[in-house]
């Protein structure tokens, strides 16, 4: 795209490009006979071969002579990756799931040629197995409200024209044309937007502090490190609508008086890196970033910096050290980055999702954003639903929605009809919320009050088969590995916690250990240098609070109620045994005895619980209890 | 490094050198350069790290410090097929441990190790953002999702030699 001269030219451009989205927006003309087929090109769907599917569909469309009325393109993540590849047909609003290469012909023949929906490929309601005709009727999407994810699944993220047709960069342009930096900060303050990266700090106030710092050199940094394992909202935004983040950064830079930005993005997201770099290049070519943006006096450019697999680098001070090219070790605050950040200059750091909300706030107004959400948490939040839940995926909902609505209405309840046990929010820094609290309204403050936190939006659902001591140990294993080792409470303290948890899961725990855990946790929370160490004990404290009985069962009865902790389980051969002898031959300590064709038995006293016998048995006769 | 040595640099070092050449601000480019070096050589040997130190004009000790800090970097050669099992939370609660154990059993190596002859290496990583498909394994950039233990055989069969 050629350089766009100014605000007016951008507006004109947007108006001219609007027809690109005509079929995709609500209220599209159903009678035109034209169709667009959008195929998800996100990481999830690409791994289920969506790019090959795109080619196949394009070929079938040509073969059917439909090239003039139907076009197939890629788009960003719909959030329903588990059922990928996802294919959506506009303007009919039909949502196909798990579309294989072999389905391409049927889809083109039936739907595009004969106007009959390919029912076999529709999503089916797990309750009644009925196919659902329209995307917006799917329970997974009905209660969602998409702001940050608004363009994901709507535009082609690799074409800036699509983004401009969807009013991209108009917010930036109108800020440059019509508002002072202070007015921009004011609008963000009105919106009540709080940081989506974990802490929930009010974005407007952060910007205000940075704007007030003297000096010509300041920086804007986008935190795209997305360290919480199991959370993928930032990945989806970067892959599906990278321009929203670039525009948000440029607005932030204008508001605080910065001219240079960095995106710190994790190396594990190659597709997000590629799409973002492409978007940056396209925006620069169009004059939407770079020198004297849209003919104004404001210049802003940005560069990608790669994370290299250290969770602690998501913490803002560590992240700055990493951008500077060193080891990503946190430093103590104050000074806050807004005062002294990159190379000692005032720096604002915002999360991907925070920044993606910014253009919308400036376009639609802070009041509009503040009109949904709860009293102290405004707007929407993206959550990554995972674990033992029917509809795994990304959901964007208004703040203040009840957990129960997310898990049961949107998430479709627990997998395989099992019993809900807990949901972990806030990743390794957060905690578990038990069934009794499912009706609590989700916002920053309520989650903290429950001993958890919002974190970046990961939500891992656990059922009766998950052992809460084991889960706590999993998180401590994570934080222990990821501790940078700079301060003692975190390096040694969290290691001790991990040792105690290991002892408990192996049946060596005592009741005193439970008190020790609580004391240690309190000390670490008070004395660790950075957020990683300070929050690391949270998963232990919250499981101890809500699932103490499980800890006690491990310690006193030497029993794992969920049947997870192998050391506390015994192996038995049941009467399904046909006496084939396979287990006996496989057992490394020869503790299985029995004659051919007769039932075998395990000598519990010698068994080392390696599990080999279970995998050898052809009749699944061996169980552990 | 003097001009004499430069001329006998092999292709790969030349490629890395060209990459370094594009950075104006050499000191802050360190992580990107190491990233590229690892892409080119597959791992960061002492020779490579010393080369980078020289070209970026930073002390070798700093390079070693940075390389050892970040888990993405490796100083030992990896297999031609790099199997990385996601052990992130979403994958963990959906049985990732079974998948990585199955690889360990099949390849007769532990996580973090490489088979003799450098055919396979097995590592764990924390989340590739495909959590909806948990449990997930990445082999040479290709993501495999919704795995069960028997799929391990198929993956190994598809990535051989
Ligand atoms: C150990 C640790 C890891 C963090 N990881 C991330 C992360 O991956 N992404 C993120 O945006 N913020 C992360 N944060 C929060 C950042 O320090 C910082 O608060 C945030 O990026 C600020 O942006 P926001 O105000 O827009 O949320 C992490 C904090 C800690 C203590
Ligand atoms: S709390 Fe842990 S991660 Fe943070 S500085 Fe201390 S040792 Fe490093
Ligand atoms: S679990 Fe292992 S040691 Fe125990 S009986 Fe089975 S094969 Fe033998
Ligand atoms: S492998 Fe199964 S069926 Fe065969 S002897 Fe052992 S328990 Fe019995
Ligand atoms: S990657 Fe396709 S729906 Fe998420
Ligand atoms: S937790 Fe495995 S891909 Fe995210």
Summarize it:
The complex is a heterodimer of chains A (625) and B (161). Chain A is built from 25 helices and 17 strands. Chain A is an alpha/beta fold.
How is the topology of this model organized?
The complex is a heterodimer of chains A (625) and B (161).
Chain A: H1 7-17, E1 35-40, H2 43-47, H3 50-63, E2 70-75, E3 87-90, E4 94-96, H4 104-113, H5 139-142, H6 160-165, H7 170-178, H8 181-191, H9 203-212, E5 219-224, H10 233-240, H11 242-256, E6 260-266, H12 270-285, E7 301-307, H13 316-323, E8 347-351, H14 352-364, H15 366-370, E9 380-387, E10 393-398, H16 403-410, E11 420-425, E12 431-434, H17 444-449, E13 458-463, H18 468-482, H19 488-505, H20 511-527, H21 531-535, H22 538-546, H23 548-555, E14 571-573, H24 582-586, E15 592-593, E16 601-602, H25 612-616, E17 622-624
Parallel strand pairs in A: 1-2, 5-6, 5-8, 6-7, 9-13
Antiparallel strand pairs in A: 1-3, 3-4, 9-10, 11-12, 11-13, 14-17, 15-16
Chain B: H1 3-7, H2 11-21, H3 30-41, H4 46-56, H5 60-69, E1 81-86, H6 89-92, H7 96-107, E2 120-125, E3 137-139, E4 142-144, H8 151-158
Parallel strand pairs in B: 1-2
Antiparallel strand pairs in B: 1-3, 3-4
The site of one iron/sulfur cluster has 14 residues of chain A, from helix 24.
Describe this protein's structure.
The complex is a heterodimer of chains A (625) and B (161). The mean pLDDT of chain A is 94. Chain A starts with 6 loop residues before the first helix and ends with a strand. In chain A, 39% of the residues lie in helices and 13% in strands. Chain A has 5 domains: 33-139, Glutaredoxin (3-Layer(aba) Sandwich), CATH 3.40.30.10; 160-370, NADH-ubiquinone oxidoreductase 51kDa subunit (Rossmann fold), CATH 3.40.50; 380-463, Ubiquitin-like (UB roll), CATH 3.10.20; 468-556, NADH-ubiquinone oxidoreductase 51kDa subunit, iron-sulphur binding domain (de novo design (two linked rop proteins), Up-down Bundle), CATH 1.20.1440.230; 570-624, 2-Layer Sandwich (Alpha-Beta Plaits), CATH 3.30.70. Chain A is an alpha/beta fold and 625 residues long. With 161 residues, chain B is of the alpha+beta class. Chain B folds into 2 domains: 3-67; 81-158, Glutaredoxin, CATH 3.40.30.10. Chain B has helices spanning 3-7, 11-21, 30-41, 46-56, 60-69, 89-92, 96-107, 151-158, and strands spanning 81-86, 120-125, 137-139, 142-144. Chain B has a 4-stranded mixed beta sheet with strand order 2-1-3-4, covered by helices on one side. In chain B, strand 3 (137-139) and strand 4 (142-144) form a beta hairpin. In chain B, helix 2 (11-21) runs antiparallel to helix 3 and helix 4 (46-56) packs across helix 5 (60-69). The longest helix of chain B has 12 residues, at 30-41. Chain B is elongated, with a radius of gyration of 18 Å. Chain B starts with a helix and ends with a helix. The relative contact order of chain B is 0.12. At the A-B interface, helix 2, strand 7, strand 9, strand 13 and helix 18 of A face helix 3, helix 5, helix 6 and strand 4 of B. Bound molecules: flavin mononucleotide, iron/sulfur cluster (SF4) (3 copies) and FE2/S2 (inorganic) cluster (FES) (2 copies). Residues 312, 330, 483-487, 490-491, 528-530, 532-533 of chain A line the site of one iron/sulfur cluster (SF4).
């Amino acid at each position: 795209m050629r350089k766009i001269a100014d605000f007016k030219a951008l507006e004109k451009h947007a108006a001219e490009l609007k027809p690109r989205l005509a079929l995709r927006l609500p209220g599209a003309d159903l009678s035109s006979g034209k169709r667009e087929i959008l195929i998800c090109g996100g990481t999830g769907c690409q791994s289920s071969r969506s790019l090959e599917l795109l080619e196949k569909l394009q070929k079938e469309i040509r073969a059917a002579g439909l090239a003039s009325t139907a076009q197939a393109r890629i788009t960003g993540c719909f959030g329903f990756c588990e059922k990928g590849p996802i294919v959506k047909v506009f303007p009919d609003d039909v949502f196909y799931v798990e579309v294989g290469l072999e389905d391409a012909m049927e889809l083109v023949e039936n739907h595009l040629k004969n106007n009959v929906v390919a029912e076999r490929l529709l999503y089916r309601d797990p309750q009644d197995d009925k196919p659902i005709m329209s995307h917006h009727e799917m329970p997974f999407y009905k209660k969602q409200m998409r702001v940050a994810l608004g363009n994901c699944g709507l535009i082609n993220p690799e074409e800036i024209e699509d983004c401009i047709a969807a009013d991209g960069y108009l917010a930036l342009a109108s800020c440059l044309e019509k508002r002072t930096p202070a007015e921009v900060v004011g609008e963000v303050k009105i919106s009540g937007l709080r940081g989506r990266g974990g802490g929930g700090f009010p974005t407007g106030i952060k910007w205000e502090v940075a704007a007030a710092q003297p000096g010509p050199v300041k920086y804007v940094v986008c935190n795209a490190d997305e360290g919480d394992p199991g959370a993928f909202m930032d990945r989806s935004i970067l892959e599906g609508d990278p321009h929203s983040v670039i525009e948000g950064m440029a607005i932030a830079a204008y508001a605080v008086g910065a001219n240079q930005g960095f995106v710190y993005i994790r190396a594990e997201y190659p597709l997000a890196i590629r799409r973002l770099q492409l978007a940056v290049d396209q925006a620069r070519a169009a004059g939407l970033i770079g020198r004297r943006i849209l003919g104004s006096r404001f210049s802003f450019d940005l560069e990608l910096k790669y994370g290299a697999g250290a969770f602690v680098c998501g913490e803002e001070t560590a992240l700055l050290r990493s951008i500077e090219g060193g080891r990503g070790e946190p430093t103590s605050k104050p000074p806050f980055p807004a005062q002294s950040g990159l190379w000692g200059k005032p720096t604002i750091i915002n999360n991907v999702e925070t920044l993606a909300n910014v253009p919308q706030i400036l376009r639609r107004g802070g009041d509009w954003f503040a009109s949904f959400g709860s009293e102290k948490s405004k707007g929407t939040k993206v959550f990554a639903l995972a674990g033992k839940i029917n509809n795994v995926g990304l959901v964007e909902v208004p703040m203040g929605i009840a957990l129960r609505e997310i898990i049961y209405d949107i998430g479709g309840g627990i997998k395989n009809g099992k019993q809900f046990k807990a949901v972990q929010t806030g990743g390794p820094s957060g905690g578990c919320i038990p069934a009794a609290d499912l009706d609590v309204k989700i916002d920053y403050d309520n989650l903290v009050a429950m001993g958890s936190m919002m974190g970046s939006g990961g939500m891992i659902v656990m059922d009766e088969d998950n052992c809460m001591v084991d889960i706590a140990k999993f998180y401590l294993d994570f934080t222990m590995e990821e501790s940078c080792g700079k301060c003692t409470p975190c390096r040694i303290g969290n290691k001790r916690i991990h040792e105690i948890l290991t002892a408990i899961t192996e049946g060596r725990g005592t009741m005193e250990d439970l008190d020790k855990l609580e004391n240690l946790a309190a000390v670490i929370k008070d004395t660790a240098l950075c957020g990683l160490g300070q929050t690391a004990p949270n998963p232990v404290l919250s499981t101890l609070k809500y699932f103490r009985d499980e800890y006690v069962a491990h310690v006193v009865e030497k029993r794992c109620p969920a049947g997870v902790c192998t050391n506390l389980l015994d192996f038995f051969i049941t009467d399904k045994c046909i006496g084939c002898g396979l287990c006996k031959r496989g057992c490394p300590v020869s503790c299985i005895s029995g004659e051919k064709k007769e039932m075998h038995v395990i000598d519990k006293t010698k068994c080392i619980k390696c599990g080999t016998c279970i995998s050898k048995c052809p009749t699944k006769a061996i169980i552990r209890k | 490094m003097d001009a004499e040595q430069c001329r006998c640099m092999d292709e790969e070092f030349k490629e890395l050198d060209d990459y370094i050449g594009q950075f104006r601000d050499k000191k802050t480019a360190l992580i990107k350069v190491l990233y590229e070096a690892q892409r080119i050589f597959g791992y960061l040997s002492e020779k490579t790290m010393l080369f980078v130190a020289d070209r970026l004009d930073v002390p070798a000790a700093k390079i070693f410090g940075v390389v050892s800090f970040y888990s993405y970097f490796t100083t030992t050669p990896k297999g031609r097929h790099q199997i990385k099992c996601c052990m992130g939370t979403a994958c963990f609660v959906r049985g990732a441990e079974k998948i990585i154990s199955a690889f360990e059993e099949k390849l007769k190596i532990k996580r973090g190790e490489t088979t003799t002859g450098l055919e396979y290496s097995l590592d764990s990583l924390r989340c590739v953002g495909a959590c909806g498909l948990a449990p997930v394994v990445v082999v040479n950039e290709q993501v495999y999702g919704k795995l069960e233990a028997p799929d391990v055989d198929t993956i190994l069969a598809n990535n051989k030699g």
